[in-house]
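Appendix B. One record, verbatim.
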Amino acid sequence: MYNDEELNEEQDYQYQDNLCQKCHQRYIDTSESEYSILCSSCREEQIKYPIPKVFIPIFIILILLVGISFRNFPILLREYKVYVKADEKVNEGYLSDTLNKLTDLLEKHPDADKVAIKLTDIAMENGMYDYAGYILDKYLLGKEFDDDIYDKLSSYVDDIERYYETYDSCNEILKKAYEDNNNNFNEEKANEELLNLLNDNSKNKSLIYYCLGRTTSNTDEAKNYLEKSLEEDPKMIQSKVALGNTFRRENNFDEANKKFQEILAEDKTNDGALRGLAILEMLKGNNEEALKLAKDAYISNANGEYIYETFLIALKLNNKEEDFKKYKKEFEDAGDTLDDETVELLNGNSDLNSYYINE
């Protein structure tokens, strides 16, 4: 039996126990759940504002920040995909395109060392030593890396220095062959000096053979030198392009086409091979196809060897006078000038065969 005081305490406890656990003013509403601890008013308010009001401004700020991040996220994702899929795209035949995209990415994020290393790896693996040298010099030299990466980059530097030293030596020989003969190229003297340079084991023999192939007027000798260049270094892309052009000069269009197609199988946007095919189409009289190929070469690398000249010739053959004037001005505004033979052809004073076959 409870005494009066105990009874009052019990009743007060039951009363408190039945009050809403939030407002403590109204009875708990159990009409929807026997386990409810809120009155009907507080339950409705809780449903309407499940998050405490003090946190609402914080969540609004977070949502805005997330929204801004997602607005930029597709751009970041595209950039990341360029890096991640680089090797895959190269294997699919998009070498030049991949190098250009990685370079664009690196220019936007110059401290992205992984991108710079990836770019250098691809360039070195595919014989684009000039490209690799530029990336190494601008983005990687002087930085600290793990031993494995440092050793790899050091070996690249050794190969590139050897390449550039050979390039300088070849250029000096060719320059002297002009200057010592009253600015008339002395082919015999140049070839003699280049052949002597092959005895220097510190030099890049593939590059020397390439220079011999370019300077020799005899097409059989030129082909022999260029094939030796590729035996020394199968990755020497410029030797592959020069070999195709040599077949074209001796009027062997089928073999020239084969060589250019081999290059494009590895690099669909190689400007030298696209230019080579454009010239073949011009010589066959297929001017529209020639213009398409010449434009593709220009888009791939407007600064490539003779790319502008070939593009301008193709525009002229297709009577694209407005475009011809536009791109000629662009060429000249960059400080470049057309050589006399190209001007003669564009003015109609020579023909394609004398320009491209008997060059």
